[in-house]
């Protein structure tokens, strides 16, 4: 039981990170119907920028808690700005010229961009894994321990931070989509791009902003990943990207709460699989999940069934 | 960095300094943010943890290059009056060139074939070039195999390398556990790969294009992870070594009596084996091409192309789309299986390292950049890709970066691939090439 609860906490933490990345996939897919294959690598770039800024600030666990919080906010802002610049540039250079072209074209450039970003970071930052000394330490013991000697269930401060930041961001982004004019523009572009542009919506700008928003969330996920695992390399974007995409599909692509739910589920599946079966095959479990979901529930958990038009 | 010209095509009859300045400022800003952070500061692992190394000069040079490059583009290409072609080549030259190209296109295939057969005997051909030729032909074969799936049937397969791996491992394992020879395993590897194509294809082929792409990608990764972790059976990350070399009708390419060189009274040389491998892959590739061409004329090939153009129309005409997709998937997989067992016998050693996603991406890039559905395009793209890799061998680090960049640039420049006209399989009275701009392609609903 204690072991189960512990894995549940770990799974939710991992799932939050996947969920944040998945939102980027789901928003872009919803609006222009393409899989932004390079999104996982934007997440990786965000993670590296966070690492650079943390190192430049000289942040360590011995700094005061206030300083750590203030600097982390700065780190987050930097990572978000740089990732957005990457996301925006990629959209402008690689996807926009191909809009209206045949369907495979942007997917191919997306794969190209993914290769470019991975190798760019590999050259600029080196191929070796980057370890980061833990900045946050400590946590709370929830169950077990003591005289009984039962399995200790702990939740660390990082986990609390990751889960809470994710939920706050989710709430903010849901509000943006639901209430602001940008959100309305996005939803209208999602329904009918031509009609939206006839009604005076700047479709190109809306799409660019969607990419920027996705990249920002990916940067947040990047920072969380860095703080949680403490090691990153230039290749983390690929696997995380595929899993986040799986999450987006599982939740129903195009649906924001769906992406979050899918992320949590994938995180839980992966964690429980590693905990109870085998660590080596955890990726297989996540990918098999994708296949199973697509076969039996192609529209996802919270998605709308797609209507095929002639 | 921004491509403003997309929106305001041709509006700049003369230089619009306001717009250019704005564009250059945006470029400068993006350059500062992108290169200033990720190139300007490099994290280094040292004893006491991470330290920062600054590379401001490199970052500044990169920023100067992109800003300068955009300025040059604004001064030249993007400042032409409206209506004028944006291409560098004048229109007159272009039409003359295209008619010449048409003539060349007719004879290009046979010329290439003759060249490919002559290639090992040319005086300039050494061991290195021959090895390169084998590599190019392997990719030509893989490209042609994938072309059936992507180019003809319009199904985007991002996990094609899985079948290549299945072919390679089938041969290696059959040889390892049962001692089967290459010639027995070659058809078996193809059949096994096709069989796996059916098994994997059956549940997923109901999916629409993009989903199919991701699921095939997932399958590719699953196969790789299994190969990597099933240590007792596949050797895991260590791979399998000592895979038997092929024989020429039972004659081994070895020194000594009763072997190839001895039998034909030749002096023993290692080049014989390489030459043999070269012709082997050439024949395998030609078989792939021949079968594809023949299939295109048969009902099954036509229904592949019909499926690519419009799945709904296909279904309403009573075609069983699942069968069509499965046959395309399995046929493509079969050729990958052949190529895989060739790869195993050529290398003598295989490990999951050789079957990563990047390999799938490379094969897909060859097919797409060559022009979907075009057999000749695959050849040209393979030569360009593998040749390009060899040219940039010195710049090992930058090779993949250049590969990715060229993939993006070629796609933006020619979304339809290098050879973008298509020959119809059936025609009325006159055979005319159909420009691919006229048809939807690779929709794979």
Write the layout of secondary structure elements.
The complex is a heterodimer of chains A (310) and B (445).
Chain A: H1 2-32, H2 39-57, H3 65-95, H4 104-125, E1 130-131, E2 139-145, E3 150-156, H5 157-179, H6 181-191, H7 193-198, H8 203-229, E4 231-232, H9 236-251, H10 256-276, H11 282-296
Antiparallel strand pairs in A: 1-4, 2-3
Chain B: H1 17-38, E1 41-46, E2 49-54, H2 56-75, H3 91-118, H4 127-152, H5 160-178, H6 182-204, H7 209-229, H8 231-234, E3 240-241, H9 260-263, H10 271-297, H11 299-309, H12 311-316, H13 321-347, E4 349-350, H14 357-370, H15 375-391, H16 396-413, E5 421-422, E6 434-435
Antiparallel strand pairs in B: 1-2, 3-4, 5-6
Helix pairs in contact in B: 1-2, 4-10, 4-13, 4-14, 4-15, 5-6, 5-7, 5-13, 6-13, 10-11, 10-13, 11-13, 14-15
The geometry of chain B reads as globular
Overall 3D shape of chain A: globular
DSSP strand tally of chain A: 4
Side-by-side strand order of the widest sheet of chain B: 1-2
Report what the structure shows.
Chain A has 310 residues and is mostly helical. Chain A has one domain. Chain A is built from 11 helices and 4 strands, in the order ααααβββααααβααα. Chain A has a two-stranded antiparallel ribbon with strand order 1-4. In chain A, a hairpin with a 4-residue loop joins strand 2 and strand 3. In chain A, helix 1 runs antiparallel to helix 10, helix 9 packs parallel to helix 11 and helix 10 crosses helix 11 (282-296). The termini of chain A are far apart. The model of chain A has no long low-confidence stretch (mean pLDDT 86). Chain B folds into 2 domains: 4-79, no CATH class; 126-438, ABC transporter involved in vitamin B12 uptake, BtuC (Orthogonal Bundle), CATH 1.10.3470. The relative contact order of chain B is 0.12. Residues 1-12 and 436-445 of chain B have low confidence and may be disordered. By secondary structure, chain B is mainly α. The longest helix of chain B is centred in the first third of the chain and has 28 residues, at 91-118. Chain B has a two-stranded antiparallel ribbon with strand order 1-2.
């Amino acid at each position: 039981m204690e072991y189960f609860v512990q894995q549940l906490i770990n799974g939710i933490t991992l799932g939050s990170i996947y969920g944040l990345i998945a939102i980027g996939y789901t928003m872009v897919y919803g609006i222009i119907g393409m899989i932004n294959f390079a999104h996982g690598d934007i997440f990786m770039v965000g993670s590296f920028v966070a690492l650079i800024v943390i190192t430049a600030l000289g942040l360590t666990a011995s700094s005061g808690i206030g300083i750590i919080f203030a600097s982390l906010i700065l780190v987050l802002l930097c990572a978000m700005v740089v990732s957005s610049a990457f996301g925006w540039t990629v959209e402008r250079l690689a996807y926009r010229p191909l809009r209206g072209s045949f369907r495979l074209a942007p997917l191919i450039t997306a794969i190209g961009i993914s290769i470019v970003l991975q190798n760019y970071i590999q050259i600029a930052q080196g191929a070796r894994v980057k370890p980061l000394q833990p900045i946050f330490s400590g946590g709370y013991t929830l169950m077990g321990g003591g005289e009984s000697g039962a399995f200790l269930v702990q939740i660390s401060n990082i986990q609390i931070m990751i889960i809470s930041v994710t939920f706050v961001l989710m709430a903010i982004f849901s509000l943006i989509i639901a209430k602001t004019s940008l959100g309305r523009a996005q939803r209208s572009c999602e329904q009918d791009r031509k009609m939206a542009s006839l009604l005076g919506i700047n479709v190109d700008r809306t799409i660019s902003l969607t990419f920027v928003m996705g990249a920002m969330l990916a940067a947040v996920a990047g920072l969380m990943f860095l703080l949680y695992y403490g090691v990153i390399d230039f290749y983390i974007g690929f696997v995380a990207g595929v899993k986040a995409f799986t999450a987006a599909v599982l939740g129903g692509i195009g649906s924001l709460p769906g992406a979050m739910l899918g992320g949590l589920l994938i995180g839980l599946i992966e964690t429980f699989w590693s905990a109870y079966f085998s660590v080596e095959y955890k990726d297989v479990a996540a990918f098999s999940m994708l296949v199973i979901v697509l076969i039996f529930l192609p529209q996802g958990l919270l998605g709308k069934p797609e209507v095929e038009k002639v | 960095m921004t491509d403003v010209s997309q929106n305001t095509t041709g509006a700049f009859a003369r230089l619009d300094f306001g717009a250019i300045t704005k564009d250059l400022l945006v470029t400068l800003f993006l350059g500062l943010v992108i290169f200033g952070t990720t190139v300007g500061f490099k994290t280094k692992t040292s004893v006491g943890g991470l330290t920062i190394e600054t590379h401001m000069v490199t970052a500044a040079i990169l920023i100067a290059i992109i800003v300068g490059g955009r300025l040059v583009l604004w001064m030249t290409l993007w400042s032409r009056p409206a209506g004028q072609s944006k291409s560098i080549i004048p229109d007159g030259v272009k039409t003359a060139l295209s008619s010449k190209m048409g003539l060349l296109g007719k004879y290009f295939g046979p010329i290439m074939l003759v060249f490919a057969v002559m290639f090992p005997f040319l005086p300039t051909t050494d061991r290195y070039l021959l090895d390169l030729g084998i590599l190019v032909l392997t990719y030509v074969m893989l490209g042609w195999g994938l072309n059936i799936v992507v180019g003809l049937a319009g199904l985007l397969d991002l996990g094609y390398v899985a079948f290549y791996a299945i072919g390679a491992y089938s041969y290696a394992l059959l040889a390892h556990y049962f001692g089967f020879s290459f010639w027995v395993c070659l058809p078996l590897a193809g059949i096994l790969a096709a069989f796996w194509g059916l098994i994997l294809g059956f549940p997923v082929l109901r999916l629409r294009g993009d989903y199919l792409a991701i699921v095939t990608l997932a399958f590719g990764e699953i196969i790789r992870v299994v190969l990597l972790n099933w240590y007792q059976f596949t050797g895991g990350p260590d791979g399998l070594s000592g895979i038997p070399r092929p024989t020429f009708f039972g004659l081994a390419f070895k020194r000594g009596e009763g072997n190839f060189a001895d039998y034909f009274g030749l002096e023993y040389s290692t080049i014989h084996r390489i030459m043999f491998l070269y012709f082997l892959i050439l024949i395998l590739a030609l078989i792939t091409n021949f079968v594809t061409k023949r299939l295109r004329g048969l009902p099954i090939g036509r229904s592949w192309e019909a499926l690519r153009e419009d799945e709904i129309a296909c279904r309403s005409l009573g075609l069983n789309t699942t069968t069509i997709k499965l046959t395309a998937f399995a046929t493509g997989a079969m050729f990958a299986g052949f190529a895989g067992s060739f790869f195993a016998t050529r290398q003598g050693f295989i490990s999951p390292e050789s079957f990563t996603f990047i390999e799938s991406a490379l094969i897909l890039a060859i097919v797409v950049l060559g022009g979907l559905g075009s057999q000749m395009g695959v050849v040209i793209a393979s030569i360009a890709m593998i040749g390009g890799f060899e040219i940039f061998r010195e710049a090992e680090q930058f090779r993949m970066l250049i590969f990715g960049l060229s993939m993006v640039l070629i796609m933006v420049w020619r979304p339809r691939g290098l050879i973008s006209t298509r020959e119809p399989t059936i025609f009325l009275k006159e055979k005319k090439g159909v420009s691919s701009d006229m048809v939807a392609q690779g929709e794979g609903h």
